[in-house]
Amino acid sequence: MLSVSGLQSAYGPSQVLFDVELGVGEGEVVTLLGRNGMGKTTTVRSIMGLLKPSAGTVRFTGREVSGATPETVARLGVGLVPEGRQTFPTLTVRENLVATASNRLKRQNPWTLERVYALFPRLGERAGQAAGTLSGGEQQMLAVGRALMTNPKLLILDEATEGLAPVIRAEIWRCIEALKAEGQSILLIDKNIHVLKRLADRHYILEKGRTVWSGSSAELTANADLVHRYVGI
Ligand SMILES: Nc1ncnc2c1ncn2[C@@H]1O[C@H](COP(=O)(O)OP(=O)(O)OP(=O)(O)O)[C@@H](O)[C@H]1O
């Protein structure tokens, strides 16, 4: 579904990605791991068309999308929950959810307000409340709900549980598990490696803008020194 190969990206003169390789198959949950500043968010920005790669390829559902606009990438079916949530603060929860909603890919059983409220009952209870007045955890749920309302083929979550209270974090994990059970393809960036080992099928580790390791959850578990070296846990 998503295949990234030899990806290089820079911010002006400063090169950040040197050789990123990663892939997400249909119905797979895949993680991108690595310490702070190793290039995870830059990889996501490059996939989404928010940053134009200087070399390498990004293919999504068989189409080359390196250099495509964010609108094109979104229209092809990539939904992003960006780092820092970025919901529309003055719009209500409901307005946020419908603002970018679509089912362009004609998915059966598409996401609707009702389905999002069933997944996150707190959002239903606060449907008429301005997003800016929600707690951090509720805003995160809204960011996930908003991405789902675009009915993406691939959902990318960049640090979706960062800074959340454990109970809220658990709710986000529960939601991701439910999405996985439905066959949703997901690329996850997160630091909760213990949860990720249980939840995800495969993992990639980035070190200074390069993919230095990839493998299954069992392989990751068997390589505690690897995790310590590259992820710092
Ligand atoms: N807009 C920018 N301009 C210049 N350099 C940037 C910019 N954004 C990020 N960088 C640099 O690119 C490198 C990779 O950053 P990136 O945000 O991709 O890392 P990350 O692995 O996602 O880390 P984190 O977990 O801290 O978000 C860092 O050295 C960072 O300082």
From TrEMBL:
Gene Ontology MF terms in the entry: ATP binding
Listed Pfam families: ABC_tran (PF00005)
Annotated TM spans: none
rRNA processing in keyword set: no
PROSITE patterns per record: ABC_TRANSPORTER_1, ABC_TRANSPORTER_2
Keyword terms, alphabetized: Amino-acid transport, ATP-binding, Nucleotide-binding, Transport
Entries under SUPFAM superfamilies matching the protein: P-loop containing nucleoside triphosphate hydrolases
Keyword field contains Transport: yes
Domain ABC transporter: 2-233
Entry similarity comment: Belongs to the ABC transporter superfamily.
UniProt-recorded name of the protein: ABC transporter ATP-binding protein
Organism in which the protein naturally occurs: Ollibium composti
